[in-house]
Amino acid sequence: MQVTPPTFEHHREPLGIGESAPRLSWRTVTDTGGWRQTAHQVEISTADGTVLTDTGRVESAESVLVPWPGPHLGSRERVGVRVRVWGDAEDDPSPWSEHAYAETGLLEPADWTAHPVTPDRDAPTGEPLPAALLRRDFTLTGHVASARLYITAYGVYEAEINGERVGDHVMAPGWTSYQHRLRYQTFDVTPLLRTGENTIGALLGEGWYTGRLGFHGGRRAIYGEHRALLAQLEIGYADGTTQTVVTDEHWRTASSPVLRSEIYDGEAYDARRERPGWSTPGHDTSGWATVREIPFPSAELVAPTGPPVRRTQTVAPVAVVTTPSGKTVLDFGQNLVGRLRIRVRGAAGHEVTLRHAEVLEHGELSTRPLRFAAATDTYVLRGEGAEGGEEAERGDGVDVYEPHFTFHGFRYAEIGNWPGPLDPADIEAVVLHTDMARTGWFECSDPLVNRLHENVVQGMRGNFLDVPTDCPQRDERMGWTGDIQVFAPTASFLHDCSGMLTGWLRDLSAEQLARPDGVPPLVVPDVLPAAFQDAGAQAVWADVAVLLPWTLYQRFGDLEVLRTQYPSMRAWGEATIRLTAEGDGLWHQDFQLGDWLDPQAPPDRPGEARTDGDLVANAYVIRSAEVLAEVAELLDSNGQLDGKEDAARFRAHARAVRERFADRFVTPDGLLSSDTQTAYALAIAFSLLPTERQRRGAAERLAHIVRGASFRIATGFTGTPLICDALCAAGEPQLAYRMLLEKSCPSWLYPVTMGATTVWERWDSMLPDGTVNPGEMTSFNHYALGAVADWLHRTVAGLTAAEPGWRRLRVAPVPGGDLTWAKAAHDTPYGRAEAGWRIESVKGGKDGKGDVLVVEALIPPNTRAEIQLPDGSAPFEVGAGRHAFRHPYP
What we know:
Elements: E1 2-3, E2 7-8, E3 15-17, E4 24-25, E5 28-29, E6 37-46, E7 51-54, E8 58-59, E9 78-87, E10 100-104, E11 117-118, E12 132-140, E13 144-154, E14 156-161, E15 164-165, E16 181-183, E17 185-188, E18 196-205, H1 207-210, E19 228-237, E20 242-246, E21 252-255, E22 258-262, E23 266-270, E24 289-290, E25 292-293, E26 300-302, E27 309-315, E28 319-322, E29 328-344, E30 351-357, E31 360-361, E32 364-365, E33 376-380, H2 389-393, E34 399-401, E35 408-416, E36 427-434, E37 440-444, H3 447-463, E38 464-465, E39 467-468, H4 481-494, H5 498-513, H6 544-556, H7 559-579, H8 613-637, H9 644-665, H10 677-685, H11 692-708, H12 723-729, H13 733-740, H14 749-753, H15 789-796, E40 799-801, E41 808-811, E42 821-828, E43 831-840, E44 852-859, E45 864-867, E46 876-878, E47 881-888
Parallel strand pairs: 3-10, 16-26, 23-33, 41-45
Antiparallel strand pairs: 1-5, 2-4, 6-7, 6-8, 6-9, 9-10, 11-25, 12-18, 12-21, 13-17, 13-19, 14-15, 14-18, 19-20, 21-24, 22-23, 27-36, 28-29, 29-34, 29-35, 29-36, 30-33, 30-35, 31-32, 37-42, 38-39, 40-41, 42-43, 43-44, 44-47, 45-46
């Protein structure tokens, strides 16, 4: 038996954390069947090994997000923690886990002595700004025992010390609601320092702060007119003394070779303008200007709750394409998010152009879907010694370039003006995304379904770049609230996105609660013009305030996210009470986004859904109010708040709207006022049909509509996550399978048959003849319609959580369609869980196949699982370990 080193909150790297009492989690690795923890012991020590806290044996089965057992930590405090456990049949404890170390960041505003400094002096011109270099020399007088750099920016930065890059973060500090929350990073820079002369520097770009954001041309300087750097280098000497180097008026600034670097338009880099050694001591700064101090941020400086954006993969081109017009295009075989890294030899001043797009149309790079995003990088060669010969052979004189402060969504890259013959080995794609741990997998016997699932995974990776964006390629890339609301169950199975989404929810709360109506914005951070708010609150999108925290609680078992987000959740609940208070007790509004991108909506009018927007809105009012009531009761029972009154209020609200919903939208026979797949999916999945007659009638009608559509999908963003579950609840799981496996357009597999490697925004983003949908909004990387993967995990493979946080599991596969096997795996907080099934042929069976169904499961230690076999037998419970069940299968 082995106990893993404990983790702290949801941190992958607990350096510079913002929690003074971080909760602890650990896993027990054992082959003992049915093992359950009965007690644990936690020991907390200082960095030098002095024990601060020893809990002794604590009788408890808890091992996930266990409350911090020691005194609260102060700023900059570093501790080691180890754990051991007892099982229910064991007198002796396990061996101690290895120590895990955590260190707090700067927890109080007074901990900051640095001042923000800007290289910008003039008023904004409306044009992109070149990235700026900032630097400062300093002297160290003794041996450095430890050093920490606390750093953030208005804009995006890359820091260096003595010519070495600090950390491996990309697009740091990331995108938050800068007027409310500014995230900072903490780096251990001890190895980069030396006794004597040292230099610290940073390359500072625009990023989301002053760069162009928004569609239809967007706006610049939404958050402020001037970029700034805020850095605090704290050095501890071996003799116990300290020294601090901060951003202040002593820093200097100069131009950089990055002439522009924009999120939408790309980067222009002139290597001839490089300043070799700019971040090392002794560099000539005679031509450098002084920086200007600006006021300290009024926003809260916060430590990250999730991992940073990183380079996670490199992808080589799979083909070189010559287009009909004679251009050279590289195909990377996968629609991805990132940028190119090139190795190029040529004369000084030669300019190479790199254009990016997701698809080819008529053999050429298709840039129309990018709208106002140029997605183009240019590189002007340094050219020293790049003429070939021995010098070039050994690698000297080769320019190596990767953009700094931009990213693109692309599969294809057009390479313009390459000097000499192009060797595709000299170009690779660098994949960027928030560095979340992968936690979920799915496979089945159908290769197209496997490709669909992989498309969902790839789409999530590309769109989880610091914020959960809608798309990563055009002039948008915003944190649309409706998209993540419907996709969150899938996301939280595939990756550990808890820390990232927890931070994003805090931005949502800050934006929402700053508004007088308490309505969440459509995007977070909110950069939409005021005109977008004039359309009024939008159901499905605004419901993210309630439903995303609830999903995170269900999947990660984190009650704290509910407590923290409760003011935001409650504010939206109160808003829906106001919205339904007038007239007939239902929410009526001229325009709802509703079932956005219904496949029947015209290309230029994506909001023209067949399902009544009022029906969608009121269904969601009920759903959110019922969840909110449950949250209030849960927080009340756990002593987090006095929630009895809220629970009663929101439950009564849900009941009243439910009654009016049935009167307005449902006939006595269960037919709905909108005779659509989405309407019936909502009514069935949200249990909005009060009588058995109505439930039976709605089930029959939904099945009839699906058959009448020849099993093609007819849902948009709202109906798609629910349609397969609704069919299963209606007693028609084989219809759900038939819809899943349909290949004609619109369907989940149609894009796969067209070569898609990510999920599309529209069911027909590319038409059968290979032309791109004529609509203005045509993304080939949009995760919302990939929400069906949650059904693949829970129902097709049969693996889901039966209690919040996977303390109890449910294994209940529903075989169907032409599949002969399916399986899923998930790294739960307790360890790896697996579930799956396969059909085994038994000699002598009918047609020699399909005789026995084998259901298999792996249940992690310290959990139990409910098993529901597809033979209709009563469910039963099993403990940890591997299990297999066999029964005849017709």
